[in-house]
Amino acid sequence: MGMVTLREILKDTREKHYAVGGFNMNSYEDSEGMIMGAARKRSPIIIMTSMACVRYVGLKALVGMIRGMADTYNIPVCLHLDHATDLDLIKACVGAGFTSVMIDASKKPFEENIAITKSVVEFAHTYGCSVEAELGKLGGREENVEVADADKAYTNPEDVPQFVEETGIDALAVAIGTAHGFYKAEPKIDFPRLEAITKITDCPLVLHGGTGVPEADFRRCVQMGMSKINVGTQLKKDYTDALKKAVHELPDSEYDPRPFMRPVKEACAQAIMAKIDIFGSEGMA
Ligand code: 13P
After folding, report:
1. Please, which pLDDT band fits residue 150 given cuts at 50, 70 and 90?
2. Which 3 state secondary structure label does DSSP give 170?
3. With contact defined as beta carbons under 8 Å apart, do 53 and 29 qualify?
4. Ligand 1 pocket, 210 CB below 6 A?
5. Is 76 in the pocket of ligand 1 (CB under 6 A)?
6. DSSP character string of 15-72
7. Hey, what's the torsion of the CAs at 280, 27, 50, 167, to 10 degrees?
8. How confident is the model over 85-136, as pLDDT tens digits?
9. If we measure between CA atoms, which residue out of 168, 186, 181, 87 comes closest to residue 130?
10. CA 206 → CA 10, 38, 106, 198, distances in Å?
11. pLDDT band at residue 143, thresholds of 50, 70 and 90?
12. Radius of gyration of the chain (CA)
């Protein structure tokens, strides 16, 4: 097992009605906690990094660390670059051993989105690396991705076959009513739109903006054929809440950093295990 591509990790999700979680990491503690949680459930996992996270941890350290954890825990792990717009960084990540990248040209006009995505697919596939792209524009804010409410746009099902065919992508992110970051009001998922998209394409579909989506909506999306579900913001909060609690509870005399960081790992493991239960990926490793 160990590191696998996005295409490989998602290949029987639709047929077997489960989704694989894509979780945004930021450091050593949360990534090990996530992979540990997935291993306890014998579930595959997609570890996602933003462009800022790659720069923060460092490319070589990041790939070496995740590869080491994938081997240690012996479950399928996909290392995925999330929402990338910087083509040089994409190339560097592919060359360094990422097994999946997302090119996000969703803000460009349709034909330009196709051309940019296609060029990334041509490059990445020569290295055996998968590619995710986005059609439509998800609202909200996360890291370097920000779309104002007025600019958000749902995925048009009729655009999907041409986009998938001409680009050669391995997974498609769809905009069906979720948004990045914490919601101000409960999200309203456009299920008829999702149904129309699943009918028109076999390409594995990706739901972004998983933080705050009600459990019943997740389950319905998975039953309808969603293959990958992204969660980021909630995990950042779980991480910092666990750290704040440890700082509050440990004696002032404690100076070893590890007692502060162990609860962070465990909090991330618990968060991932709860999502695996909802996404139905337990035992699929
Ligand atoms: P949230 O931060 O809203 O969970 O979204 C994560 C995501 O979609 C990353 O691409």
Report:
1. low
2. coil
3. no
4. yes
5. no
6. HHT--EEEEE--SHHHHHHHHHHHHHTT--EEEEE-HHHHHHH-HHHHHHHHHHHHHH
7. -50
8. 999 999 999 999 999 999 999 999 999 999 999 999 999 999 999 999 999 9
9. 168
10. 10, 19, 14, 11
11. confident
12. 18
The residue to which tokens 């618990």 are assigned? 270
Q: Indicate whether 142 pLDDT > 80.
A: no
Q: Ligand 1 centre from 172 Cα, in Å?
A: 15
Give the catalytic positions in this structure: 82
Q: Is the CB of 181 under 6 A from ligand 1?
A: yes
Sort strands 2-3 and 76-84 into parallel, antiparallel or unpaired. parallel
Residue extents of the structural domains in the chain: 2-279
Task: Decide the pairing of beta strands 139-142 and 145-147.
Answer: antiparallel
187 lines ligand 1 (CB under 6 A): no
- According to CATH, the topology of domain 2-279 is TIM Barrel (3.20.20)
CA dihedral 108, 114, 116, 122 (to 10 degrees): 160
- Residues 255-274: b if buried by 16+ CB within 10 A, e if exposed: eeeeebbebbbebbbebbbe
Residue 202: the pLDDT is: 97
pTM above 0.90, yes or no: yes
Cβ–Cβ < 8 Å for 12, 275: no
Q: Which of these, 230, 238, 280, lies nearest to 81 by C-alpha position?
A: 230
The preferred substitution site among 208, 238, 240 for testing ligand 1, maximizing ligand atoms within 8 Å of CB, is: 208
Task: Give, for ligand 1, the residue of 83, 85, 132, 142 to mutate: max count of ligand atoms closer than 8 Å to Cβ.
Answer: 142
Contact 82, 50 (CB under 8 A): yes
C-beta 106 within 6 A of ligand 1: no
